[in-house]
Amino acid sequence: MGEDHFNMLNNLIEELDDQTEKYVNQMKNRVSAIKESTSSGSVLCYFTYSFNISHCANKENIMLCSFNVINLSKKAVHNPYICLNIPTDQGFNMMGKIIQPNHNNLKNQSDAWERFTQTENNNEYWLRPVNNESIPPNERIKFSNFQIKWNAIKQYSASIKGYFYSDEYPNGLNAINGVSVNGNVEGRESNG
Fold first, then answer.
1. Which residues fall within 8 angstroms of residue 22, CB to CB, at 6 or more apart?
2. Which of 35, 92, 102, 127 has the most Cβ atoms closer than 10 angstroms to its Cβ?
3. What pTM value is reported for the model?
């Protein structure tokens, strides 16, 4: 093994060590922020998700997500609603238990959410739970099992963000995590 190869490997190891240290520090900062917000009594919101990615051109890819909101305070949180920002410019489409306004016959579904405003920005989904006007202390609500689908033609990239609002939090709270997906598809779909 030549000295150049050894130096290259040594530099790569140093870069990986630096990157790992950076990630550990980011996680420590996030944990500290969560501890600060929960010690004062707050609301915690986050995504859980899984992927089914085909890695083939023109095949459907699916992301199954839930957006969770937990009231960690000692008081109820009133009139909760969320905003999900999902890019649609690359063919990402969201589906879920979403009721459009004025569909009263569907409002008896216990886990349904209503899209109560549609902005000029089609990337934003403003949703409120149909059957929850408040979140009691130490309880949670969840916009569960919504799907984001896309067909990968050559490359794809999306960053999904979530925000929580209520009477007590009119300026909103960011989710502690987001969902990011990106990739490249090489080759073409085979016909057989």
1. none
2. 127
3. 0.72
